[in-house]
Write a sequence for this structure.
């Protein structure tokens, strides 16, 4: 018997669950190896904020790495030299960030000398204890201020009346957050589920076997996709929390099945959104694979790492197409919708600065950057012309205004995000087995 195993077509994608799971079986091990290479494990971040008191758990802290451990080609000194001749990007007023027209998110400035290096392998995404009003406030802002919410929050006590048009400017949001933002949930927007007993949970989990419910058909594809990607990211983060969970009574780290059931198993739509997000990333990989490998060449990626990425791309290309990007932004309002989509996604990336736990913020920002990179590859890029690296002299000489620039940090974020989602799908499989064992023990 299969527990929590959805079947059939994934809504808004062009593939089914079974296909995605079998693709993931091929990709997960390769991705796992790839993210352990120096190119992908060292990530540059803006300096971490002062502790804001919202997460007192040591697990929230991030260990930074001395720049001496970073291969010379990626150090800010070397990268900074390249920057002297690169004019395409402009720094935003915020300082440690930058943006160009094709970007779907605000990027950390790789060249900023204030930045710190983080070894991602030393700082795994897992349970940190970050919860309560601070984390709820950030999720609430992401969904309610910046999303084209296609469906009311079925599991929250308050639903959104906004059909997706009135978005508060992120500046208003940021000042609200840094000022404490009043009473946070403003009347219990995230009340969570009033949980029944364990028997009830079981029934609901079994209910999810029926597969996802129909999304609201009145909402256009672009807005649904925006929501699905955010919800899918949220679900993936939740899966990692439950998969690497600290039992505070024993001090042991282990998968927590109840955590998974409450956060994901009881919500088939979250599971579907997670699969959808993975599908979108996979499509970006197969569509732009050779150009991604080229970016590794341009940014001093080692030969062995390039070969590993090329193999990954080959596997992705051997699979049926997972998502049809041409179905998006194709109507009469296409450009308007695309600009709006881009603006709101950029806002989400800004909101990530407000996450009050270093490790959560590290992975939150990384994954939003990875998703933003996928969106850029799918919707700002034709999939064929060369991608410019920030130091690409040939393209700069031609001064092609349409050239899409892809930096090392975007490729690092993209591949790590693909790995996060891939690991989440693998973890779901693990939880199914745990659930089956629990059933047998009863
Ligand atoms: P939350 O996960 O906070 O969710 C709030 C509400 O959102 C729910 O009540 C529900 O109504 C709705 N919701 C939940 N999931 C979905 C979904 N997939 N789709 C749509 N709606 C949904 N904690 C860690 O321990 N480790 C981390 O690495 C970590 N990273 C984080 C990164 C970010 C960017 C943020 C904002 C928070 C992070 N957290 C992390 C905190 C974590 O996500 C939860 O907020 C926290 O564990 C409290 O969980 P909760 O069960 O109260 O609901």
């Amino acid at each position: 018997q299969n527990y929590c195993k959805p079947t059939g077509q994934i809504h808004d994608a062009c593939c089914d669950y079974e296909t995605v799971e079998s693709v993931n079986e091929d990709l997960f091990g390769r991705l796992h190896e790839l993210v352990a290479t120096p190119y992908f494990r060292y990530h540059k971040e803006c300096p971490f904020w002062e502790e804001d008191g919202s997460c007192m758990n040591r697990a929230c802290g991030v260990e930074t790495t001395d720049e001496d451990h970073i291969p010379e080609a990626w150090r800010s000194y070397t990268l900074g030299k390249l920057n002297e001749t690169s004019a395409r990007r402009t720094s935003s007023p915020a300082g440690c960030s930058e943006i160009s027209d094709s970007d779907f998110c605000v990027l950390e400035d790789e060249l900023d000398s204030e930045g710190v290096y983080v070894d991602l392998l030393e700082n795994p995404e897992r349970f940190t204890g970050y919860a309560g009003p601070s984390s709820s406030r950030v999720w609430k802002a992401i969904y309610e201020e910046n999303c084209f919410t296609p469906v009311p929050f079925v599991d929250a006590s308050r639903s959104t009346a906004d059909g997706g048009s009135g978005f508060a400017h992120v500046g208003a949001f940021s000042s609200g957050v840094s000022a404490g933002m009043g009473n946070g949930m403003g009347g219990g927007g995230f009340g969570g589920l009033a949980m029944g007993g364990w028997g009830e949970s079981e029934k609901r989990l079994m209910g999810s076997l029926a597969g996802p419910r129909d999304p609201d058909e009145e909402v256009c594809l672009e807005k649904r996709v925006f929501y699905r990607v955010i919800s899918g990211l949220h679900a993936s983060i939740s899966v990692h929390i439950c998969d690497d969970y600290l039992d505070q009574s024993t001090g042991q780290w282990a998968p927590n099945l109840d955590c998974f059931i409450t956060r994901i198993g009881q919500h088939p739509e979250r599971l579907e959104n997670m699969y959808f997000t993975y599908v979108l990333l996979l499509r970006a990989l197969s569509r732009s694979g050779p150009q991604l490998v080229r970016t590794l060449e341009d940014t001093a990626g080692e030969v062995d790492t390039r070969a590993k990425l090329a193999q990954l791309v080959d596997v992705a290309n051997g699979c049926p197409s997972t998502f049809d990007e041409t179905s998006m932004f194709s109507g009469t309002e296409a450009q308007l919708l695309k600009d709006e989509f881009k603006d709101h996604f950029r806002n989400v990336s800004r909101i990530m600065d407000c996450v009050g736990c270093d490790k959560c913020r590290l992975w939150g920002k990384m994954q939003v950057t990875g998703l933003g990179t996928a969106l850029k590859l799918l919707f700002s890029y034709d999939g064929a012309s060369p991608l410019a690296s920030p130091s690409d002299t040939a393209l700069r000489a031609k001064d092609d205004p349409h050239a899409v620039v892809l930096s090392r940090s975007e490729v690092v974020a993209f591949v790590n995000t693909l790995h996060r989602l891939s690991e989440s799908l693998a973890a779901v499989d693990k939880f199914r087995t745990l659930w089956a064992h629990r059933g047998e023990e009863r």
The longest helix spans residues 408-441. Residues 125, 127-128, 130-131, 135-136, 138-139, 153, 155-156, 190, 192, 231, 234-235, 237-238, 241, 263, 270, 352, 355, 359-360, 363-364 surround flavin-adenine dinucleotide (CB under 6 Å). Confidence is low (pLDDT under 50) at residues 76-95, 149-216. The chain has 14 helices and eight strands.
